[in-house]
Design goal:
This protein has eleven helices and three strands. With about 270 residues, the protein is mainly α. Strands 1-3-2 form a three-stranded mixed β-sheet, sandwiched between helices. About 5% of the residues have low confidence. Keywords: Hydrolase, Membrane, Metal-binding, Metalloprotease, Protease, Transmembrane, Transmembrane helix, Zinc.
Length: about 270
């Protein structure tokens, strides 16, 4: 009886792990290249082109916004902060706040120089200084071009990963998971930089930084996530620590809080 040797033995677990590791390495390199490409591209996009991009996004929020004394007052506060921006960050810009009655506790920076403030966030603010820190943070996103980075990454990265993984569901799932973790860390870095500029603007506006950490103190008491590495924002407690460290390093003074203008009291 003649026996034939199996010339195609089954793939071992070790070989599968090696293949999987190579695949992960390729995905990580692709994500890094996309981030590098986007990081350089955002500085080439002119304010005029950015505003044209905003015409595709902002109208949806304009329909939700509520023109009112509240929105007018928010824009007056924003103007005070804007005066302390470097000239190159103001040239060709038209920063405005859109006030959206919605219980969402959030604020957004959108192409077209628009900052979205939801009533849920405004309701959390107990002082003008606290609110100005939030507005300054959003101006920080504009200064660092973070709003454009996020949009371009969301457009380019899925297309690139899909072209690499093809139609394989499990490969797409793995690649997407790696991208989520990478995007979370990337976004956390953006948020930290925006906090830094927000703190600087707060100091330049009031000559002290009272209220800088108040909003994040509240968040840290309301929400305690054990998955900070998956969050697009640093944990509130970490943000408070980072801001306190910056305040100490720069020798910023802590003065008296200014009350919220009556138009912003929505209790």
């Amino acid at each position: 009886m003649t026996y034939q040797t199996n010339r195609n033995p089954p793939t071992s677990n070790r070989q599968l792990l090696i293949i999987f590791g190579i695949f992960l390495g390729i995905i990580i390199v692709i994500i890094w290249l996309v981030c590098f490409f986007v990081d350089n591209l955002v500085w080439i996009i002119s304010p005029r082109i950015e505003q044209q991009l905003g015409t595709l996004i902002v109208p949806a929020y304009e329909r939700l916004a509520q023109p009112s004394q509240t929105q007018d007052t928010l824009n007056k506060l924003l103007n005070k902060l804007e005066l302390n921006l470097p000239l190159e960050q103001r040239k060709g810009r038209d920063y405005q706040v859109l006030y959206v009655p919605n219980k969402t506790v959030n604020a957004l920076a959108l192409p077209g120089d628009r900052i979205i403030i939801f009533s849920g966030l405004l309701k959390q603010a107990d002082s003008e200084n606290e609110l100005m820190m939030i507005l300054g943070h959003e101006l920080g996103h504009f200064a660092n071009r973070d709003h454009l980075r996020s949009i371009l990454r969301q457009l380019i990265l899925p297309i690139t990963l899909a072209s690499v993984t093809g139609n394989s569901d499990w490969l797409v799932s793995v690649a997407s998971s790696v991208a989520v973790v990478s995007d979370a860390k990337y976004s956390q870095s953006q948020e930290a930089q925006a906090d830094k500029l927000g703190l600087e603007l707060l100091y330049k506006t009031y000559n002290h930084v009272a209220g800088a950490t108040d909003f994040f103190d509240k968040l840290s008491n309301q929400k305690n996530s054990d998955l900070d590495f998956l969050s697009t924002h640093p944990s509130p407690k970490q943000r408070v620590k980072d801001l306190q460290r910056l305040i100490k390093e720069k020798h910023y003074q802590i003065g008296e809080l200014s009350p919220l203008p009556k138009e912003l009291l929505i209790r």
